[in-house]
Each structure stands twice: as C-alpha cells, then as structure tokens.
Amino acid sequence: MTSRYVYGLVDGEQVEFEADAVRGGDYVYTISHRRLGAIVSDVETTDLEETDDDATRHDEVLREVMDRDGGRSVVPMQFGMAFESDRTLKNVLRGARPAFRRALNDVEGRIELGLKVVRDEDDDVDAEPIEESVAETLEPIAAQSVPNDMFSDRLVLNRSYLVDRDDREEFDEAVAELEDRHDDLTFQYSGPFAPYSFVDVEIGVQ
C-alpha cells in the first residue's frame, strides 16, 4: 500500500515538482487542509529507517520548496514522518492546525543560518570575549538564535540563527566582519537551511 512521506508544511499555493525523493520517489506534491499544505512524496511503508542518502533527499526537497516562487516559508518535519492515507494525514492537519499555524507564523519570511567558530588545535582561546563579540554583531540582525552541540573541544562557538530573508545580505556582511576581526580563528558559515532549530512541532507517524 502506498503511503505519504511528509517533508514539511507550507501555507497557501500548492507545491508540485519532480524530485529525487525519499525511498526512490520521483514526485513531490501537497496534501492540503484549508490553506495548510503538507509537502509529501509516495513511499511503500510507514516504517522508514534513516539513511544518509534519504536524509540528504529530505533536506534537498525542503531547499527546493524554499527556493520556489521567490522564496517560500516552510515548517520542516524531522525525518521519518509517514502516513498510511491522505485521510489520516488530513485529520492530523485538521487537529493540529493551531500549532502548525503558529509555527508557520514564527518562520514566515525567515531562513536558518549556521555559524561555527573553530580554534586551531594547539591554540589556547578564551571563548567568552569571542562569544560576546559574535553576539554583539549578529544578535541585533537575527530574529532568534539557539546554541548547538559543542561536539569538539576545538569549537569555540556553534549557533544557529533565524534570519529574515531581507536581512540575509546584512548578516553575511556581519559574519565577514567577524572573520576579519578574529583572523586567528576559522569561521564555518553555512545555510540557508529550513528552520529546524526554531520549530518544535511534530506529527506522529501513522
């Protein structure tokens, strides 16, 4: 039986395009309740084990949606959300509509950008003034920011920023300014991404 794999949620006009989708799918479209649309592709199971290839396909579909029509806002879902039928998915959209609408409002017109600041292996760095410098420069531009896992002892800072699309260029220039100011450190600037770090809405697998 064909099921529906969900990538994320959008508001308004439907999404429809060919893509290299999860589990060998080749077509992405929306299933809607009122103006709320779930971005989906067809899969043969609701029990999906995450692979690197499928995780990449999940992210690439969301990037494609974000780039369409001059830049669309999307509420991303974590990997693995799949539903046995359109009816089941529409019931979830209907029941959780207020939470989904709040999430869409929070990310409307915004993207996620990531910044890691890395020290050389043998350098002894005082992280506090660097964190303050980055915060003073970037926080006034970003709508929100959150810390990420400090998975290496070489990391001085690892944060994600929710930034208005219209402020992207200003944010880029601010990061470049920080690189010049702290030229003894490596700045790893990435994105744009779907705003995973700023959405806490989940829909259960059915």
How are the elements arranged and paired?
Elements: E1 3-11, E2 16-18, E3 27-33, E4 36-43, H1 52-67, E5 75-76, E6 82-83, H2 86-95, H3 97-107, E7 110-118, H4 127-138, E8 144-147, E9 155-164, H5 168-181, E10 186-193
Antiparallel strand pairs: 1-4, 1-5, 1-6, 2-3, 3-4, 7-9, 7-10, 8-9
**Low confidence ranges:** none
State the order of secondary-structure elements, H for helix, E for strand: EEEEHEEHHEHEEHE
| General form | elongated
| Total number of distinct structural domains | 2
- Would you tell me the structural class of the helices and strands? alpha+beta
Give the integer mean of the pLDDT values: 91
Beta content comes to: 25-35%
Helix content range of the residues, please? 25-40%
Number of helical segments with 4 or more residues: 5
| Separation, N- and C-terminal Cα atoms | 13 Å
Gyration radius from CA atoms, angstroms: 19 Å
Number of strands: 10
The main pleated sheet reads as:
6 strands, antiparallel
Family: Belongs to the gas vesicle GvpF/GvpL family.
Pfam families: GvpL_GvpF (PF06386)
Keywords: Gas vesicle
Subcellular location: Gas vesicle
